[in-house]
Design brief:
The protein is α+β, with helices and mostly antiparallel strands. Helices cover 25% and strands 38% of the residues. The protein has 2 domains: 3-63, Orthogonal Bundle (Arc Repressor Mutant, subunit A), CATH 1.10.10; 68-227, Chorismate lyase-like (Chorismate lyase, 3-Layer(aba) Sandwich). Pfam families: GntR, UTRA. Keywords: DNA-binding, Transcription, Transcription regulation. This is GntR family transcriptional regulator.
């Protein structure tokens, strides 16, 4: 039996199991499928690279945990908005400081280099597992008395609206694939150079002021984005 056939048989086996469920041992699988253990192991290697299984030393091979889905839904005017992602999300601040913007960030947030920014790094957790690392920058004068706790409890955007009367109106977000570095891997609990998604978002209020710039690293094995598309009659 060829490795591609073995891989397909294993896929079918995985689909019949729940996320995080242990698979039979290599010995049992090789007997069940009727294939040599080296061929079976090579197929499992490919499934692990595809993110369908997770190996834990001394414990066995498991189906991958379910992915947390974030919808992007078309709104009026053709824009996309993002409803809350699945699951119960919490945040843990690991760094909180006030710092001058400097030339590069000043340009990005459209403030002077000496303008004070609140710089926050937090880990986003869902279903008791770290999902993302967010680096948030906000002009200090918009949130003069904010503390680290403001980035840990509830929605940060809701806090901006209700406490500081700063209303997010529009945002430009860029997403691209990347891999985790040493620090990111440690915080997210994944191997070095694991697949990840890099998000960069610039948010403005109704007057066009930049009120936030965020750079985030999301786990590629646990997070996915779903876009809802609508085509007109002239679409190719």
């Amino acid at each position: 039996m060829r490795r591609t056939e073995v891989k397909e048989r294993l896929r079918q086996l995985i689909e019949r199991r729940l996320p995080g469920e242990v698979l039979p041992s290599e010995r049992a699988l090789s007997t069940e499928i009727g294939v040599s253990r080296p061929t079976l192991r090579a197929a499992i290697d490919e499934l692990e690279r595809d993110g369908l299984v997770v190996r834990e030393h001394g414990r066995g091979t498991f189906t991958a945990p379910r992915k947390i889905s974030q919808d992007l839904v078309p709104a009026t005017g053709g824009e996309q908005y993002a409803p809350p992602a699945e699951g119960h999300w919490t945040s843990r601040v690991i760094d909180f400081a006030t710092t001058p913007a400097g030339a590069r960030l000043g340009k990005r947030l459209e403030v002077s280099p000496g303008h004070q920014l609140v710089a926050v790094t937090r880990v986003r957790v869902v279903e008791e597992a770290p999902m993302a690392i967010e680096r948030i920058l906000v002009p200090r004068d918009l949130v003069p008395d904010i503390t680290a706790a403001g980035f840990e409890s509830g929605s940060f955007y809701e806090l901006l609206r209700t406490r500081y009367e700063v209303v997010p109106a529009t945002a430009v977000q860029v997403i691209e694939p990347t891999v985790t570095g040493t620090d990111e891997s440690g915080l997210l609990g994944v191997p070095l150079h694991s697949p990840a998604l890099l998000f960069e978002r610039t948010t403005r209020d109704a007057e066009g002021r930049v009120i936030e710039y965020t750079r985030s690293i999301y786990r590629g094995d646990r997070y996915r984005i779903t876009s809802h598309l609508k085509f007109d009659h002239t679409s190719g």
